[in-house]
Amino acid sequence: MRANFLLSVLLFSFLTNSLFAQKTYLLRPDRVFDGQESHENWVVLVKNEKITGVGPASQLTADSQNAEVIDLKGCTLLPGFIEGHSHLFLHPYNETSWDDQVLKESRSFRTARATLHAKRTLMAGFTTVRDLGTEGAEYDDFGLKQAINQGIIPGPRMIIATKALIATGSYGPRGFSADITIPQGAEEADGQDLIKAVRSQIGKGADVIKIYADYRWGLNGETRPTFSTDEIKLIVETAKSSGRPVVAHASSAEGMKRAILGGVETLEHGDGGTPEIFKLMREHGVALCPTLAAGDATSQYRGWKKGTDAEPERIKNKRITFKNALDAGVTILAGGDVGVFSHGDNARELEMLAEYGMRPIDVLRSATSVNAKVFHQDNLGQIKSGFLADIVAVEGKPEIDISAIRKVKLVMKNGMLYKD
Ligand SMILES: [Zn+2]
């Protein structure tokens, strides 16, 4: 018994040592954006999975630490980007419609794709994703997360929602004969049954509970609220017992209002937000993930020739509501609803946040320290001693030209180099 125990301890330490054979690195870029501010001529020391030193080059040397020096001339070092809204189990709708992905693609096919999506996301410098629902692929995000965490495949660390919750009859795919039951893109539950649905998703691995507070199920196909405020409160109360937050897809003013009053922590999309709603968000400390890139992508899939045609009403409106959110002082998250457009093109949302009126340095803050704080990731999103060594180096100065984030030269996650 005891010998067996010792053997398994030895085996475990062998496995962990070989899996995480990390070193000590001294990273020497032109400057470091620490999640808040930029510092010229700073260097960063990484030991095993953590950042152990940050500061002026004169104060940190490689010799005393036996560190491998990585010169990153012309580069800015930043915390690994955090994608605020992805669906690794979806791929762009101009390749295959959402309905067809849910109904015609097998889960094995979708998982095979998801592994590639995960790799592309990481290589683009996004070392963490908040993945907000498998959209019909059951709990397969949990297995994907396990495979990444065990080092079997490369990918970002994942904060997962599993199936997400919808009010019965409100979601899709829809438009079929009432005589047949069509698989849905999320789990249907209502009233008191929501307690069991929330708990079972948590039991199957959900880190966050995602709900659809409204959807296009109005009499004429318009967006209308789904859950009542009381139902949302019940979901939040149930999830909170386990320490998990609830986040809501919400595009209409009424759907947003119910979600805010129900106690959710973040709103996704928010296209129909009014100045009053954004004021309410600010008062309740609810953050907005505007997913600008998703609307931009779907408008183009519907025929809009960006740069040639005039902007469609939807885009014009989005610019106005986003500005209203900024003016109201709502916390802005960086998250594009990736999956609607290509995984690995996550930079698109950051570029659009700048295009729609945020200062590039505020965009960088959103994609690092702000996302980390709102997502309860206390050791991520900053280049700071003691924090996990999730680091990206890009060529140029993204605080001046945000598109520099596309020129990724180095990606490190947990102190391991994925791109050098
Ligand atoms: Zn989404």
Automatic annotation (TrEMBL):
SUPFAM superfamilies: Composite domain of metallo-dependent hydrolases, Metallo-dependent hydrolases. It comes from the Bacteria. Gene3D superfamilies: Metal-dependent hydrolases (3.20.20.140), Urease, subunit C, domain 1 (2.30.40.10). Residues 1-21 form the signal peptide. Keywords: Signal. Transmembrane segments: none annotated. Coiled coil: none annotated. This is Amidohydrolase family protein.
